[in-house]
Fold:
Amino acid sequence: MENKTHNLADIDIAQAAEIRHINEVAAKLSLSEDDLEHYGKYKAKLPLSLLNPDKIEQSNLILVTAMTPTPAGEGKTTTSIGLSEGLNKIGKKTTVVLREPSLGPVFGIKGGAAGGGYAQVIPMEDINLHFTGDFSAIEKANNLLSALIDNNIQSKTHNLNIDPRTIAWKRVMDMNDRSLRQITIGLGGTTNGIPREDGFNITPASEVMAILCMAENFSDLKERLGNIFVGYTFDKKPIYARDLKAENAMAILLKDAIKPNLVQTLEGNPAVIHGGPFANIAQGTNTVIATKIGMSLSEYVVTEAGFGADLGAEKFFDIKCASAGLKPKAVVLVATIRALRHHGGAKKEEYNTPSVERVKEGFANLGKHIENLQKFGFNPVVAINAFPSDTDEEIELIKKRCADQGVHAVVARGWAQGGKGMTELAEAVVSTIESYQNNFQPLYDWDAPIREKIEIIAKEIYGADQVEFSKKAKLQMMRIEKLGFSDLPICMAKTQKSLSDNEFRYGRPENFVVNVREFEYATGAGFIIPILGQMMRMPGLPAVPASEGMSINDEGVISGLS
Structure:
Protein backbone atom coordinates (compact mmCIF):
# COMPACT_ATOMS: atom_id res chain seq x y z
CA MET A 1 0.00 0.00 0.00
CA GLU A 2 1.13 3.55 -0.66
CA ASN A 3 1.16 4.75 2.96
CA LYS A 4 2.76 2.29 5.35
CA THR A 5 2.64 4.09 8.67
CA HIS A 6 -0.43 5.65 10.27
CA ASN A 7 0.93 6.12 13.80
CA LEU A 8 -1.88 4.25 15.57
CA ALA A 9 -0.60 2.26 18.53
CA ASP A 10 -3.64 0.01 18.90
CA ILE A 11 -4.54 -0.64 15.25
CA ASP A 12 -2.36 -1.84 12.41
CA ILE A 13 -3.93 0.10 9.57
CA ALA A 14 -1.33 -1.18 7.12
CA GLN A 15 -2.77 -4.67 7.59
CA ALA A 16 -6.37 -3.49 7.89
CA ALA A 17 -6.45 -1.66 4.58
CA GLU A 18 -5.94 -2.98 1.11
CA ILE A 19 -5.76 0.27 -0.80
CA ARG A 20 -7.51 -0.08 -4.13
CA HIS A 21 -6.70 1.54 -7.41
CA ILE A 22 -8.88 4.61 -7.81
CA ASN A 23 -10.53 3.02 -10.86
CA GLU A 24 -11.98 0.29 -8.59
CA VAL A 25 -13.42 2.93 -6.25
CA ALA A 26 -14.87 4.85 -9.20
CA ALA A 27 -16.54 1.67 -10.44
CA LYS A 28 -18.64 1.62 -7.25
CA LEU A 29 -20.06 4.95 -8.45
CA SER A 30 -20.67 3.54 -11.94
CA LEU A 31 -17.83 5.67 -13.29
CA SER A 32 -15.31 4.57 -15.89
CA GLU A 33 -11.62 5.43 -16.14
CA ASP A 34 -12.53 8.04 -18.76
CA ASP A 35 -14.60 9.92 -16.16
CA LEU A 36 -11.53 10.57 -13.99
CA GLU A 37 -8.51 12.85 -14.10
CA HIS A 38 -5.89 10.73 -12.35
CA TYR A 39 -3.41 12.02 -9.78
CA GLY A 40 -1.39 8.83 -9.46
CA LYS A 41 -2.94 5.47 -8.56
CA TYR A 42 -5.06 6.48 -5.57
CA LYS A 43 -6.42 9.98 -6.24
CA ALA A 44 -8.45 11.55 -9.01
CA LYS A 45 -10.33 14.70 -9.92
CA LEU A 46 -14.01 14.48 -10.85
CA PRO A 47 -15.31 16.61 -13.75
CA LEU A 48 -18.21 19.01 -13.17
CA SER A 49 -20.08 17.29 -16.01
CA LEU A 50 -21.03 14.59 -13.48
CA LEU A 51 -23.51 16.95 -11.80
CA ASN A 52 -27.03 15.60 -12.32
CA PRO A 53 -29.93 17.72 -10.98
CA ASP A 54 -32.44 14.85 -11.15
CA LYS A 55 -30.26 12.49 -9.11
CA ILE A 56 -29.41 15.27 -6.65
CA GLU A 57 -33.12 15.69 -5.98
CA GLN A 58 -33.49 11.96 -5.23
CA SER A 59 -30.39 11.54 -3.05
CA ASN A 60 -30.45 11.57 0.75
CA LEU A 61 -28.09 14.14 2.31
CA ILE A 62 -27.00 13.49 5.91
CA LEU A 63 -25.19 16.11 7.99
CA VAL A 64 -22.84 15.11 10.80
CA THR A 65 -22.32 17.81 13.43
CA ALA A 66 -21.34 17.83 17.11
CA MET A 67 -21.76 19.24 20.58
CA THR A 68 -19.36 22.01 21.68
CA PRO A 69 -15.98 20.28 21.38
CA THR A 70 -12.90 19.93 23.53
CA PRO A 71 -9.70 21.28 21.90
CA ALA A 72 -8.96 17.89 20.31
CA GLY A 73 -12.44 17.60 18.72
CA GLU A 74 -15.09 14.92 19.23
CA GLY A 75 -14.66 12.88 16.06
CA LYS A 76 -17.09 14.28 13.48
CA THR A 77 -14.88 13.22 10.59
CA THR A 78 -14.29 9.77 12.08
CA THR A 79 -18.04 9.40 12.63
CA SER A 80 -18.83 10.64 9.12
CA ILE A 81 -16.47 8.14 7.54
CA GLY A 82 -17.63 5.35 9.84
CA LEU A 83 -21.28 6.11 9.09
CA SER A 84 -20.64 5.91 5.36
CA GLU A 85 -18.97 2.53 5.92
CA GLY A 86 -21.94 1.41 8.01
CA LEU A 87 -24.46 2.53 5.40
CA ASN A 88 -22.56 0.64 2.71
CA LYS A 89 -22.51 -2.41 5.02
CA ILE A 90 -26.31 -2.42 5.17
CA GLY A 91 -26.58 -2.14 1.39
CA LYS A 92 -26.98 1.60 0.86
CA LYS A 93 -24.89 3.10 -1.95
CA THR A 94 -23.14 5.84 0.02
CA THR A 95 -20.38 8.39 -0.47
CA VAL A 96 -18.79 10.46 2.27
CA VAL A 97 -18.03 14.08 1.29
CA LEU A 98 -15.54 15.95 3.45
CA ARG A 99 -13.32 19.03 3.67
CA GLU A 100 -9.62 19.03 2.89
CA PRO A 101 -7.27 19.44 5.88
CA SER A 102 -5.30 22.63 6.45
CA LEU A 103 -1.58 22.37 7.09
CA GLY A 104 -1.96 24.76 10.04
CA PRO A 105 -3.79 22.27 12.29
CA VAL A 106 -1.83 19.32 10.84
CA PHE A 107 1.44 20.75 12.16
CA GLY A 108 -0.20 22.56 15.09
CA ILE A 109 -2.46 20.99 17.71
CA LYS A 110 -5.39 19.13 16.10
CA GLY A 111 -3.51 16.96 13.63
CA GLY A 112 -4.94 15.90 10.29
CA ALA A 113 -8.54 15.53 9.17
CA ALA A 114 -8.62 12.11 7.58
CA GLY A 115 -10.55 10.39 10.37
CA GLY A 116 -9.05 7.85 12.75
CA GLY A 117 -8.72 4.20 13.64
CA TYR A 118 -10.68 1.97 11.25
CA ALA A 119 -12.69 4.98 10.04
CA GLN A 120 -10.19 6.77 7.84
CA VAL A 121 -9.85 8.03 4.32
CA ILE A 122 -6.69 7.11 2.45
CA PRO A 123 -4.02 7.82 1.23
CA MET A 124 -3.93 9.63 4.59
CA GLU A 125 -0.51 11.28 4.32
CA ASP A 126 -1.28 12.68 0.88
CA ILE A 127 -4.66 14.04 2.02
CA ASN A 128 -3.15 15.70 5.10
CA LEU A 129 -0.29 17.25 3.14
CA HIS A 130 -0.40 18.81 -0.35
CA PHE A 131 -3.05 16.43 -1.77
CA THR A 132 -3.93 17.58 -5.32
CA GLY A 133 -2.76 21.17 -4.87
CA ASP A 134 -6.15 22.80 -4.22
CA PHE A 135 -4.97 24.84 -1.22
CA SER A 136 -1.91 26.00 -3.15
CA ALA A 137 -4.12 27.18 -6.02
CA ILE A 138 -6.38 29.06 -3.58
CA GLU A 139 -3.35 30.75 -2.01
CA LYS A 140 -2.04 31.77 -5.42
CA ALA A 141 -5.39 33.17 -6.56
CA ASN A 142 -5.79 35.11 -3.31
CA ASN A 143 -2.26 36.50 -3.44
CA LEU A 144 -2.55 37.35 -7.13
CA LEU A 145 -5.34 39.75 -6.19
CA SER A 146 -3.11 41.20 -3.45
CA ALA A 147 -0.32 41.73 -5.98
CA LEU A 148 -2.72 43.38 -8.44
CA ILE A 149 -4.00 45.73 -5.72
CA ASP A 150 -0.52 46.90 -4.74
CA ASN A 151 0.57 47.11 -8.35
CA ASN A 152 -2.42 49.34 -9.11
CA ILE A 153 -1.62 51.62 -6.17
CA GLN A 154 1.99 51.89 -7.41
CA SER A 155 1.02 52.71 -11.00
CA LYS A 156 1.11 56.36 -12.09
CA THR A 157 -0.81 55.81 -15.33
CA HIS A 158 -3.27 53.00 -14.67
CA ASN A 159 -4.34 53.34 -11.05
CA LEU A 160 -7.92 53.33 -9.75
CA ASN A 161 -7.22 55.90 -7.05
CA ILE A 162 -7.47 53.25 -4.32
CA ASP A 163 -7.04 54.59 -0.80
CA PRO A 164 -4.48 52.16 0.77
CA ARG A 165 -5.92 52.84 4.23
CA THR A 166 -9.23 51.23 3.24
CA ILE A 167 -7.97 47.99 1.69
CA ALA A 168 -9.79 45.07 3.28
CA TRP A 169 -8.05 42.30 1.34
CA LYS A 170 -5.26 40.31 3.03
CA ARG A 171 -2.68 37.85 1.82
CA VAL A 172 -2.92 34.20 2.93
CA MET A 173 -0.67 31.29 3.77
CA ASP A 174 -1.67 27.79 4.87
CA MET A 175 0.38 27.66 8.04
CA ASN A 176 -0.08 28.83 11.61
CA ASP A 177 2.24 31.86 11.78
CA ARG A 178 1.13 34.50 14.27
CA SER A 179 3.97 36.86 13.30
CA LEU A 180 2.23 37.54 9.97
CA ARG A 181 -1.08 38.73 11.42
CA GLN A 182 -0.10 42.39 11.08
CA ILE A 183 2.77 43.46 8.86
CA THR A 184 4.04 46.50 6.96
CA ILE A 185 4.76 46.11 3.25
CA GLY A 186 6.28 48.26 0.52
CA LEU A 187 9.41 49.22 2.44
CA GLY A 188 12.81 49.68 0.83
CA GLY A 189 12.33 52.53 -1.63
CA THR A 190 10.09 53.66 -4.44
CA THR A 191 10.60 50.55 -6.60
CA ASN A 192 9.23 48.29 -3.87
CA GLY A 193 5.72 49.72 -3.79
CA ILE A 194 3.76 52.07 -1.56
CA PRO A 195 4.28 51.40 2.16
CA ARG A 196 1.10 50.36 3.95
CA GLU A 197 -0.16 48.07 6.70
CA ASP A 198 -1.23 44.59 5.64
CA GLY A 199 -1.49 41.11 7.14
CA PHE A 200 -1.95 37.40 6.47
CA ASN A 201 -4.93 35.14 7.12
CA ILE A 202 -4.64 31.37 7.09
CA THR A 203 -5.76 29.91 3.74
CA PRO A 204 -9.01 28.36 5.08
CA ALA A 205 -10.04 31.90 6.07
CA SER A 206 -9.50 33.27 2.56
CA GLU A 207 -12.59 34.50 0.78
CA VAL A 208 -11.30 32.64 -2.27
CA MET A 209 -11.73 29.44 -0.25
CA ALA A 210 -15.25 30.51 0.70
CA ILE A 211 -16.03 31.35 -2.92
CA LEU A 212 -14.75 28.00 -4.19
CA CYS A 213 -16.98 26.30 -1.63
CA MET A 214 -20.08 28.32 -2.56
CA ALA A 215 -19.69 28.30 -6.36
CA GLU A 216 -22.16 26.19 -8.36
CA ASN A 217 -20.13 26.12 -11.59
CA PHE A 218 -17.21 27.83 -13.30
CA SER A 219 -19.22 30.86 -14.45
CA ASP A 220 -20.53 31.34 -10.93
CA LEU A 221 -16.94 31.06 -9.64
CA LYS A 222 -15.77 33.85 -11.93
CA GLU A 223 -18.69 36.12 -11.05
CA ARG A 224 -18.10 35.63 -7.33
CA LEU A 225 -14.37 36.32 -7.70
CA GLY A 226 -15.20 39.56 -9.50
CA ASN A 227 -17.55 40.55 -6.65
CA ILE A 228 -14.78 40.51 -4.01
CA PHE A 229 -14.75 43.83 -2.15
CA VAL A 230 -11.25 45.34 -2.12
CA GLY A 231 -11.66 48.78 -0.53
CA TYR A 232 -12.51 52.38 -1.41
CA THR A 233 -11.07 55.09 -3.60
CA PHE A 234 -10.04 58.41 -2.07
CA ASP A 235 -13.43 59.76 -3.11
CA LYS A 236 -15.26 56.89 -1.30
CA LYS A 237 -16.14 54.81 -4.36
CA PRO A 238 -16.14 51.03 -3.63
CA ILE A 239 -13.61 48.95 -5.54
CA TYR A 240 -14.13 45.29 -6.41
CA ALA A 241 -11.83 42.65 -7.92
CA ARG A 242 -13.64 43.07 -11.23
CA ASP A 243 -12.46 46.70 -11.36
CA LEU A 244 -8.91 45.34 -11.39
CA LYS A 245 -9.93 42.81 -14.09
CA ALA A 246 -8.75 40.09 -11.73
CA GLU A 247 -11.51 37.50 -11.93
CA ASN A 248 -10.42 35.64 -15.07
CA ALA A 249 -6.78 35.32 -14.02
CA MET A 250 -7.85 34.17 -10.55
CA ALA A 251 -10.24 31.64 -12.08
CA ILE A 252 -7.48 30.31 -14.33
CA LEU A 253 -5.46 29.48 -11.23
CA LEU A 254 -8.52 27.61 -9.89
CA LYS A 255 -9.37 25.70 -13.07
CA ASP A 256 -8.38 22.35 -11.53
CA ALA A 257 -9.05 23.25 -7.89
CA ILE A 258 -12.77 23.62 -8.66
CA LYS A 259 -12.98 19.88 -9.45
CA PRO A 260 -13.67 17.63 -6.43
CA ASN A 261 -11.18 14.95 -5.39
CA LEU A 262 -12.05 11.25 -5.26
CA VAL A 263 -10.25 9.00 -2.78
CA GLN A 264 -11.39 6.04 -0.66
CA THR A 265 -12.15 4.85 2.85
CA LEU A 266 -10.25 2.02 4.52
CA GLU A 267 -13.04 -0.33 3.39
CA GLY A 268 -12.69 0.77 -0.22
CA ASN A 269 -15.80 2.94 -0.37
CA PRO A 270 -15.81 6.28 -2.23
CA ALA A 271 -14.86 9.50 -0.47
CA VAL A 272 -15.01 12.94 -2.07
CA ILE A 273 -12.81 15.58 -0.43
CA HIS A 274 -12.94 19.19 -1.54
CA GLY A 275 -12.50 22.65 -0.01
CA GLY A 276 -11.57 23.40 3.57
CA PRO A 277 -12.92 26.54 5.29
CA PHE A 278 -12.79 26.62 9.08
CA ALA A 279 -16.15 26.88 10.84
CA ASN A 280 -15.19 29.38 13.53
CA ILE A 281 -14.03 32.05 11.04
CA ALA A 282 -15.68 30.87 7.80
CA GLN A 283 -18.60 28.64 6.73
CA GLY A 284 -16.98 25.34 7.73
CA THR A 285 -18.30 23.00 5.04
CA ASN A 286 -16.97 21.38 1.87
CA THR A 287 -17.84 22.72 -1.57
CA VAL A 288 -21.37 22.82 -2.94
CA ILE A 289 -20.04 21.15 -6.07
CA ALA A 290 -18.56 18.21 -4.14
CA THR A 291 -21.77 17.71 -2.18
CA LYS A 292 -23.86 17.77 -5.35
CA ILE A 293 -21.49 15.44 -7.23
CA GLY A 294 -21.70 13.01 -4.32
CA MET A 295 -25.49 13.25 -4.48
CA SER A 296 -25.38 12.78 -8.26
CA LEU A 297 -23.53 9.49 -7.82
CA SER A 298 -24.98 7.95 -4.62
CA GLU A 299 -28.32 7.36 -2.96
CA TYR A 300 -26.90 8.49 0.40
CA VAL A 301 -24.30 11.20 1.05
CA VAL A 302 -22.72 11.80 4.44
CA THR A 303 -21.06 15.17 5.02
CA GLU A 304 -19.84 17.10 8.06
CA ALA A 305 -19.68 20.72 9.21
CA GLY A 306 -16.91 22.01 11.43
CA PHE A 307 -16.88 22.38 15.22
CA GLY A 308 -20.17 22.40 17.15
CA ALA A 309 -23.66 22.68 15.71
CA ASP A 310 -23.77 26.35 16.79
CA LEU A 311 -21.12 27.07 14.13
CA GLY A 312 -20.79 24.51 11.32
CA ALA A 313 -24.36 23.22 11.29
CA GLU A 314 -25.98 26.66 11.57
CA LYS A 315 -23.88 27.93 8.66
CA PHE A 316 -24.44 24.73 6.67
CA PHE A 317 -28.20 25.24 6.94
CA ASP A 318 -28.54 29.02 6.73
CA ILE A 319 -25.80 29.71 4.16
CA LYS A 320 -24.88 26.63 2.13
CA CYS A 321 -28.26 24.89 1.95
CA ALA A 322 -30.21 28.12 1.48
CA SER A 323 -27.86 29.23 -1.31
CA ALA A 324 -27.56 25.91 -3.13
CA GLY A 325 -31.12 24.67 -2.63
CA LEU A 326 -30.03 21.63 -0.64
CA LYS A 327 -32.54 19.82 1.59
CA PRO A 328 -30.82 17.54 4.11
CA LYS A 329 -32.82 14.51 5.17
CA ALA A 330 -31.14 13.71 8.51
CA VAL A 331 -28.66 15.04 11.08
CA VAL A 332 -26.25 13.09 13.26
CA LEU A 333 -25.11 14.90 16.41
CA VAL A 334 -21.77 13.57 17.68
CA ALA A 335 -21.15 13.52 21.42
CA THR A 336 -18.37 12.07 23.50
CA ILE A 337 -18.54 11.26 27.18
CA ARG A 338 -15.20 13.03 27.66
CA ALA A 339 -16.72 16.24 26.22
CA LEU A 340 -19.72 15.86 28.53
CA ARG A 341 -17.33 15.49 31.47
CA HIS A 342 -15.52 18.62 30.24
CA HIS A 343 -18.73 20.64 30.15
CA GLY A 344 -19.59 19.19 33.55
CA GLY A 345 -16.46 20.71 35.08
CA ALA A 346 -13.70 18.15 34.47
CA LYS A 347 -10.20 19.46 33.86
CA LYS A 348 -8.18 18.23 30.87
CA GLU A 349 -6.37 15.60 32.93
CA GLU A 350 -9.78 14.31 34.12
CA TYR A 351 -11.41 13.86 30.69
CA ASN A 352 -10.86 10.10 30.83
CA THR A 353 -11.95 9.71 34.45
CA PRO A 354 -15.49 8.26 34.70
CA SER A 355 -17.98 10.53 36.47
CA VAL A 356 -21.73 10.16 36.14
CA GLU A 357 -22.24 13.45 37.97
CA ARG A 358 -20.07 15.38 35.52
CA VAL A 359 -21.78 13.74 32.55
CA LYS A 360 -25.15 14.64 34.06
CA GLU A 361 -24.02 18.26 34.51
CA GLY A 362 -22.41 18.46 31.06
CA PHE A 363 -25.48 17.11 29.26
CA ALA A 364 -26.89 20.65 29.30
CA ASN A 365 -24.55 21.47 26.41
CA LEU A 366 -25.65 18.48 24.34
CA GLY A 367 -29.27 19.20 25.22
CA LYS A 368 -28.99 22.75 23.88
CA HIS A 369 -27.57 21.47 20.57
CA ILE A 370 -30.46 19.01 20.29
CA GLU A 371 -32.93 21.88 20.83
CA ASN A 372 -31.12 23.99 18.23
CA LEU A 373 -31.27 21.28 15.58
CA GLN A 374 -34.97 20.82 16.29
CA LYS A 375 -35.41 24.53 15.43
CA PHE A 376 -34.16 23.67 11.93
CA GLY A 377 -36.77 20.91 11.63
CA PHE A 378 -34.61 17.92 12.62
CA ASN A 379 -34.80 15.31 15.31
CA PRO A 380 -31.10 14.39 15.28
CA VAL A 381 -29.69 10.96 15.92
CA VAL A 382 -27.08 11.31 18.68
CA ALA A 383 -23.90 9.32 17.99
CA ILE A 384 -21.95 8.61 21.17
CA ASN A 385 -18.41 8.35 19.75
CA ALA A 386 -16.98 5.56 21.90
CA PHE A 387 -13.79 5.85 23.96
CA PRO A 388 -12.25 3.12 26.17
CA SER A 389 -12.87 5.19 29.32
CA ASP A 390 -16.66 5.28 28.76
CA THR A 391 -18.75 3.40 31.31
CA ASP A 392 -22.09 1.67 30.79
CA GLU A 393 -23.65 3.87 33.47
CA GLU A 394 -22.60 7.05 31.66
CA ILE A 395 -23.81 5.74 28.32
CA GLU A 396 -27.21 4.75 29.70
CA LEU A 397 -27.57 8.19 31.28
CA ILE A 398 -27.02 9.88 27.90
CA LYS A 399 -29.46 7.54 26.15
CA LYS A 400 -32.15 8.25 28.74
CA ARG A 401 -31.61 12.03 28.65
CA CYS A 402 -31.74 12.00 24.83
CA ALA A 403 -34.94 9.96 24.89
CA ASP A 404 -36.43 12.55 27.24
CA GLN A 405 -35.84 15.12 24.47
CA GLY A 406 -37.39 12.86 21.86
CA VAL A 407 -34.17 11.73 20.14
CA HIS A 408 -32.43 8.39 19.73
CA ALA A 409 -28.82 7.92 20.93
CA VAL A 410 -26.55 5.18 19.54
CA VAL A 411 -23.02 4.17 20.51
CA ALA A 412 -20.74 4.64 17.48
CA ARG A 413 -17.73 2.30 17.33
CA GLY A 414 -16.30 3.28 13.95
CA TRP A 415 -12.81 4.02 15.28
CA ALA A 416 -12.38 0.55 16.75
CA GLN A 417 -14.53 -1.55 14.39
CA GLY A 418 -15.00 0.36 11.14
CA GLY A 419 -18.27 -0.18 9.28
CA LYS A 420 -19.43 -3.12 11.38
CA GLY A 421 -19.31 -0.90 14.46
CA MET A 422 -21.56 1.67 12.75
CA THR A 423 -24.42 -0.42 11.37
CA GLU A 424 -26.69 0.39 14.32
CA LEU A 425 -26.16 4.11 13.71
CA ALA A 426 -26.68 3.59 9.98
CA GLU A 427 -29.98 1.78 10.59
CA ALA A 428 -31.14 4.57 12.92
CA VAL A 429 -30.33 7.25 10.35
CA VAL A 430 -32.10 5.37 7.54
CA SER A 431 -35.11 4.92 9.81
CA THR A 432 -35.38 8.68 10.44
CA ILE A 433 -35.15 9.36 6.71
CA GLU A 434 -37.71 6.76 5.73
CA SER A 435 -40.15 7.90 8.41
CA TYR A 436 -40.12 11.46 6.98
CA GLN A 437 -39.87 12.91 10.49
CA ASN A 438 -37.47 15.69 9.44
CA ASN A 439 -38.50 18.81 7.56
CA PHE A 440 -35.61 21.23 7.03
CA GLN A 441 -36.26 24.94 7.39
CA PRO A 442 -33.70 27.80 7.67
CA LEU A 443 -33.59 29.80 10.87
CA TYR A 444 -34.03 33.24 9.32
CA ASP A 445 -34.98 35.06 6.12
CA TRP A 446 -32.03 36.52 4.22
CA ASP A 447 -34.08 39.66 3.52
CA ALA A 448 -34.35 40.51 7.22
CA PRO A 449 -32.22 43.43 8.49
CA ILE A 450 -28.59 42.61 9.37
CA ARG A 451 -29.07 43.34 13.07
CA GLU A 452 -32.17 41.13 13.23
CA LYS A 453 -30.40 38.17 11.60
CA ILE A 454 -27.50 38.42 14.03
CA GLU A 455 -29.85 38.66 17.00
CA ILE A 456 -31.81 35.59 15.85
CA ILE A 457 -28.62 33.49 15.71
CA ALA A 458 -27.25 34.86 19.00
CA LYS A 459 -30.48 34.41 20.94
CA GLU A 460 -31.91 31.26 19.37
CA ILE A 461 -28.70 29.27 18.81
CA TYR A 462 -26.23 30.59 21.38
CA GLY A 463 -28.80 31.40 24.07
CA ALA A 464 -27.74 35.05 24.51
CA ASP A 465 -29.96 37.64 26.18
CA GLN A 466 -28.94 40.41 23.80
CA VAL A 467 -26.36 41.59 21.26
CA GLU A 468 -24.20 44.68 21.60
CA PHE A 469 -22.39 46.33 18.70
CA SER A 470 -19.20 48.36 19.02
CA LYS A 471 -19.05 51.83 17.44
CA LYS A 472 -16.84 50.40 14.71
CA ALA A 473 -19.34 47.59 14.05
CA LYS A 474 -22.25 50.03 13.84
CA LEU A 475 -20.37 52.17 11.31
CA GLN A 476 -19.44 49.11 9.25
CA MET A 477 -23.03 47.85 9.35
CA MET A 478 -24.14 51.18 7.86
CA ARG A 479 -21.52 50.82 5.11
CA ILE A 480 -22.71 47.29 4.31
CA GLU A 481 -26.27 48.55 3.97
CA LYS A 482 -25.12 51.46 1.80
CA LEU A 483 -23.22 49.06 -0.47
CA GLY A 484 -26.44 47.07 -0.93
CA PHE A 485 -25.40 43.87 0.82
CA SER A 486 -27.85 43.84 3.72
CA ASP A 487 -29.75 40.89 2.20
CA LEU A 488 -26.78 38.53 2.51
CA PRO A 489 -26.76 35.73 5.12
CA ILE A 490 -24.67 35.90 8.28
CA CYS A 491 -21.44 33.94 8.86
CA MET A 492 -20.55 34.43 12.52
CA ALA A 493 -16.86 34.40 13.51
CA LYS A 494 -17.00 33.05 17.06
CA THR A 495 -15.03 30.85 19.40
CA GLN A 496 -15.72 27.14 18.96
CA LYS A 497 -15.05 26.44 22.64
CA SER A 498 -18.34 27.77 23.99
CA LEU A 499 -21.91 28.40 22.92
CA SER A 500 -21.24 32.01 23.97
CA ASP A 501 -18.55 34.34 22.62
CA ASN A 502 -16.48 33.73 25.78
CA GLU A 503 -14.36 30.59 25.34
CA PHE A 504 -14.26 29.95 29.09
CA ARG A 505 -18.04 29.62 29.53
CA TYR A 506 -18.69 25.89 29.26
CA GLY A 507 -21.87 23.84 29.42
CA ARG A 508 -25.00 25.82 28.57
CA PRO A 509 -24.21 29.49 29.33
CA GLU A 510 -27.06 31.75 30.43
CA ASN A 511 -27.52 35.47 31.09
CA PHE A 512 -24.85 36.66 28.69
CA VAL A 513 -24.43 39.31 26.01
CA VAL A 514 -22.86 38.68 22.60
CA ASN A 515 -20.48 41.43 21.50
CA VAL A 516 -19.97 42.21 17.81
CA ARG A 517 -16.53 43.84 17.58
CA GLU A 518 -16.42 44.47 13.82
CA PHE A 519 -17.54 43.18 10.42
CA GLU A 520 -15.84 41.77 7.37
CA TYR A 521 -17.59 41.60 4.00
CA ALA A 522 -17.34 38.43 1.91
CA THR A 523 -19.28 39.92 -0.99
CA GLY A 524 -17.91 37.38 -3.47
CA ALA A 525 -18.73 34.38 -1.31
CA GLY A 526 -22.07 36.01 -0.56
CA PHE A 527 -22.20 36.51 3.20
CA ILE A 528 -21.47 39.02 5.98
CA ILE A 529 -19.03 38.15 8.75
CA PRO A 530 -19.68 39.63 12.22
CA ILE A 531 -16.59 39.09 14.39
CA LEU A 532 -17.40 38.27 18.00
CA GLY A 533 -14.64 38.94 20.51
CA GLN A 534 -10.96 38.53 19.70
CA MET A 535 -11.17 36.00 16.88
CA MET A 536 -7.91 35.20 15.09
CA ARG A 537 -7.95 34.60 11.33
CA MET A 538 -4.28 33.57 11.49
CA PRO A 539 -3.80 31.04 14.31
CA GLY A 540 -0.54 30.49 16.14
CA LEU A 541 1.29 27.28 16.94
CA PRO A 542 1.04 25.71 20.40
CA ALA A 543 4.05 25.54 22.75
CA VAL A 544 4.76 22.01 21.53
CA PRO A 545 3.62 21.77 17.88
CA ALA A 546 2.58 18.42 16.43
CA SER A 547 5.40 18.85 13.91
CA GLU A 548 7.93 17.99 16.65
CA GLY A 549 6.62 14.43 16.77
CA MET A 550 6.86 13.76 13.02
CA SER A 551 9.60 11.95 11.11
CA ILE A 552 10.36 10.52 7.68
CA ASN A 553 12.92 7.79 6.98
CA ASP A 554 15.20 7.17 3.99
CA GLU A 555 12.47 5.13 2.27
CA GLY A 556 10.01 8.00 2.57
CA VAL A 557 7.86 6.34 5.24
CA ILE A 558 6.22 8.95 7.46
CA SER A 559 5.37 8.59 11.13
CA GLY A 560 3.64 10.95 13.54
CA LEU A 561 1.32 12.44 10.89
CA SER A 562 -2.27 11.65 11.88
Notes: The first helix runs from residue 13 to 16. Residues 1-11 have pLDDT under 50 and may be disordered. DSSP finds 19 helices and 23 strands in the chain.
